[in-house]
Inverse folding.
């Protein structure tokens, strides 16, 4: 598939679209009080399959940038690194929004090596009590530690 994407990229340098938003997962590892997706998660089937992503990826040469964010936590999809790599091979900028709780040091190193262009973190408070009341199941300290580890990399 990567050969097909490279070929499409080299033969068609016009980028018709500024942004593709691709949702790698509707699942999430925490339960935020404001989340509109909680009711839909049980029936969703979870993650985007690699087969579906591959079909979308055939058209990445049309986009300047890809946002791997949706109704779930992108890092719940264990193929997120492969998705980032595929998007980069297609010549697009790539990033995603995350709650940060699953961003291990090794994953941060891998995403950095792959050329992740941007990442945003959903942090709704400046102290643990308020944050953990909003982002139920998350640890404020762990998220701040994960963000700091990425920053150090």
């Amino acid at each position: 598939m990567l050969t097909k994407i490279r070929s499409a990229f080299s033969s068609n340098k016009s980028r018709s679209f500024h942004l593709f938003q691709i949702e790698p997962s509707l699942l999430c590892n925490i339960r935020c009080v404001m989340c509109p997706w909680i009711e839909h998660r049980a029936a969703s089937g979870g993650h985007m399959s690699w087969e579906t992503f591959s079909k979308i990826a055939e058209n990445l040469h049309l986009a300047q940038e890809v946002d791997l964010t949706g109704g779930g936590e992108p890092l719940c999809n264990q193929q997120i690194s492969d998705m980032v790599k595929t998007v980069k091979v297609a010549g697009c900028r790539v990033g995603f929004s995350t709650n940060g709780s699953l961003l291990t040091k090794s994953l941060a190193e891998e995403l950095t090596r792959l050329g992740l262009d941007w990442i945003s973190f959903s942090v709704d408070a400046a102290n643990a009590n308020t944050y953990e009341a909003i982002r139920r199941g998350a640890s404020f300290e762990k998220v701040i530690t994960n963000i700091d580890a990425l920053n150090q990399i």
Remarks:
- The CA atoms of residues 25 and 77 lie 6 Å apart.
